Structures are given as structure tokens and as C-alpha cells.
Amino acid sequence: MDAFDSEVRNFLQKWPEIEFVDLVFTDINACPRGKRIPIKALAKVKKGVPLPVSTISLNMAGSVVEEAGLGEELGEPDHLCFPIPNTLTRTVNPNVAQLLLTMMDASGEKPTSLFIRNVLEDLQKQLHSKGQYPVVALELEFYLVDKSRMDNGLVKPAFNPKKRMQEKDTAVYDIENLDDYAEFLSDLNTAAAEQELNTSGALSESAPGQFEINFNHQKDVLNACDQVLLAKRLIRQVAHQHNFDVTFMAKPFAHEAGNGQHIHLSVVDEAGNNLFSDQNGAASPFFYQTLAAMIHAVPSSIALLCPNVNSYRRFSAGSYTPTKADWGHNHRGVALRIPMSDSNNRRIEHRIAGADVNPYILASVVLANVLAAEKFTPEQCPDPLSETAPSMPTRMSDALAELERGEFGDYLPKEFLHIYHACKQSELAEFESAVTPLEVEWMLHTA
Fold first, then answer.
1. pLDDT for the residue numbered 166
2. How many CB atoms lie within 10 A of CB 88?
3. pTM above 0.90, yes or no
4. Can you state the angle between helices 359-372 and 116-129, rounded to 10 degrees?
5. Which of 125, 193, 196, 299 is deepest in the core (most CB within 10 A)?
6. Which of the following CATH numbers is that of domain 126-412: 1.10.418.10, 3.30.590.10, 3.90.980.10, 2.60.200.40?
7. Architecture of domain 3-104
């Protein structure tokens, strides 16, 4: 019996009531796509599930972006998708399980470099071959919101189930706010435990109805990203059970804090020694080389970390979001924060991405920076909180231009970058062609 057969058998012994399985495949935006099959058909999945390769290049609305070149031009060919080990879990529906898939080429023998999870796996292998083992922990922010919308179509704050009123007051780390949503959080934590998600609890964040879920650090970067995908799906499902909607938009409210997806990074050797610290416990040369590589890469990586027009609305001074390519110790306003820690736990918190980022792309950018560290000297790392730190691109068009002429082609497959750029350029063009209520209000009688 192979590993997948064993995983299925053990799962069904534990959850015999399961009748269906959602086969979940993610597009370039990490939106879950797929199909639901009877549990009796699950054993056949190990032979490969044919799915159009064009499903990688879906836009946020779920339509194929023909400019990416994977659709009609090729005749919508299928590639084979296979189960990701140890991702067969329950959902909140007691009769339905879920399983993540990864895409290979048409023969089913070679991972396609068009699928970002495969790219991340290759980056991790490259670092392991150098004796460097990334350790990551992710933080994911989200808003519970009302299922109805404002008259103008914008998002309405959540209706507080205990106070019986619409949320409106900001209270950072508000324990009472957690009590107000105790039933939702309890069901979320229970379901997360049943799915064996590597989470360490939720806390109230910087705005009404906003929460953050933290993941424990781990050396398996691929699994860490898988966990984020499963957690986002779980949060949505539990929220709907409690008559909430939920959003991971980077900036759902104009005058409230945005949603971030931060990633903490350290790098250890095979024995588990932190390579960001030297033998005396001080920051190592490799630590400063990695910081230098990350800062150098900020302009060309912003488009990958901020995939939507809304992503850029999150950046503003005074809101604990970065506006410059800088770093600092124990400072939440920088792009790269060095949290308080001892020498064994020295790490870098990458704070640029919003909650709308594809976690595999976020991790790929970070690991590519670690690979690039050897090209930099410690002396090339700027001073913390440098006054001369360059400003980050804060418009999607500028970020895409930086990506097109940037250096990530040295570490990420050029064919993947081409597809990503084509998809995002298409979305930007569609957004910019839309007439908004604000411009009508401003110009209807004054232009």
C-alpha cells in the first residue's frame, strides 16, 4: 500500500461519515478552484486529475486571461494534478472532506514551473542543498463583515453579536472584543484543531471586527503555505455558519487598518543552529547579507507581494504599514522588522504583503532573497531606519513596470513571471476602464 492509499484509509477510519471530497486546486491568485467527487472515487485521484493548464491564469473574477497564452491559443490543454501529501482533511461540512492538488506537466512526470507551489518547492530544495533550512511563521489578518453592503456597494462592518450593534470603535488587542465573538472563535479553533492546522490562536487587531490568526513556526515552508490556504477556507466557512461574511482584502475600509500577511523568517543549519547569529550570539554577516538582498529586491518584488489595485491602498504613513524599503529593530513601521528575541530565535519579519497575497508567491520572494544573499556583503546592508531608504512603489502600474525590468527572473521562472505579469496587467486595464461613482459625483456637472 502506497502513502496516499494509507492516508486515505487512515482518514476514513477516523471519519467514516465522509461522503464527498473537494479536490482543491489554486490559481495564480491562490483562489481555491476544483471539483467535488464521491469519496468512493478518491483512490483514483493518485493516478492524476486532468485540469486545464489555463486554470492557473484565472483573474480575480474567475475568467481565463487570454493574454497569458494558456487558453484558446493552446486549445485549453489539460495537465495532470496530483494529491499533496497530508492535506486530506475535514471541512466544516460533516459529510465533506478536502484535498489539495499540485499540477504536473501533461505527461504527469515533471512538475510544471507555471504552478507557483512547484517553484517554491524548487527554491526550498536549492537552499537545503546549500545547508540552509528556512524556518517560517505566518500571520494572517482578516475582517468579519456584515453580509449586506452599504448603499454605495462598499463593505459594511460586522454586527457585534453581543453588543447588538454595528462595529465602529477601534480597540487594539481588545480582549472584550474577543469575548463578543467567542462563539465564532471557539468554533474556528475547534475546527482548526480537527484539521490539524498549525495555528497558535486568534487575537483582536487594530480595527472593529478585525482579527489575526497566527501560525507556529516550521521548517516545511510548503506546508506552512498550504496551512494558510486551508485556514482561509476554514475561516470563511465558519464565518458563514455564524451569519458573518469575511474578507481578506488588503484595505476593505478606507479609514481603518488594512489586512496584512506577515512572514517571519529565520534560517538554520542541519543541526538547527540559527545562521542569523554567530557563535557569540551577535547578528551574523549572513543576517546582514539577507537584509541587504531583501531591501535591494523590494522595488522589483512589490507587484508579486501586492497583487491587486486594492493592495496599494493599505500603504500609508502612521498606519503601521511600510512606505519605504527599510528595516529596524522592534519597529512596526518598517518593511523588515527585527522582533525582540534571543540569538537562537533571531529572525526577520517581512511586513510588506497584504492578506490578499498568494502565500506561495510571498514565500517564494522571501526564499529567493535568501538565495540572493550570497551576492551581497554585510556592508551593503543600510543602517536601520535609514533616512535615505527609497520609497516603495505604491501604484500597481509602477510596481508592474518594476517587475518587468527587475531581477526576479534570476530566481523565479521567466514563464511564470510572464503569466503573472500578463494576468495582473489585464486586471489593471479592466479596473482602469471602469467608471466609478466618485468620478461621476465629481464631474457629472462640473466637467
1. 76
2. 22
3. yes
4. 30
5. 299
6. 3.30.590.10
7. Roll (3.10)
Residue 283, beta-bridge partner list: 277
> Which pLDDT does position 149 carry in this prediction?
87
Hey, what's the cell of 29?
491568485
Per-residue pLDDT band at 335 (split at 50, 70, 90): very high
- Each residue of 202-236: pLDDT tens digit? 777 667 788 999 999 999 999 999 999 999 999 99
Mean pLDDT of 259-284: 97
With 0-12 / 13-18 / 19 or more C-beta atoms within 10 angstroms meaning exposed / middle / buried, residue 412 is buried
> CA 219 from chain center: how many Å?
17
State phi, psi for 250 to the nearest 5 degrees. -65, -35
More confident residue, 171 or 165: 165
Q: What is the 3-state secondary structure (H, E, C) of the chain?
A: CCHHHHHHHHHHHHCCCCCEEEEEEECCCCCEEEEEEEHHHHHHHHHCEEEEHHHHHECCCCCECHHHCCCCCCCCCEEEEEECCCCCEECCCCCEEEEEEEEECCCCCCECCCCHHHHHHHHHHHHHHCCCEEEEEEEEEEEEEEEEECCCCCEEECEECCCCEECCCCCCCCHHHHHHCHHHHHHHHHHHHHCCCCEEEEEECCCCCEEEEEECCECCHHHHHHHHHHHHHHHHHHHHHCCCEEECCCCCCCCCCCCEEEEEEEEECCCCCECCECCCCCECHHHHHHHHHHHHHHHHHHHHHCCCHHHHHHCCCCCCCCCECCEEECCCCCCEEECCCCHHHCCEEECCCECCCCHHHHHHHHHHHHHHHHHCCHHHCCCCCCCCCCECCCCHHHHHHHHHCCCHHHCCCHHHHHHHHHHHHHHHHHHHHCCCHHHHHHHCCCC
Size (the chain), residues: 447
- Tell me the pLDDT of the chain averaged across its residues: 92
CB 371 within 8 A of CB 126: yes
- Domains of the chain by residue range: 3-104, 126-412
pLDDT of 129 strictly over 60 = yes
State residue 219's pLDDT score: 97
* Confidence category of residue 430, pLDDT binned at 50, 70, 90: very high
pLDDT of residue 170: 54
CA atoms in the 13 A half-sphere facing the CB of 275: 19
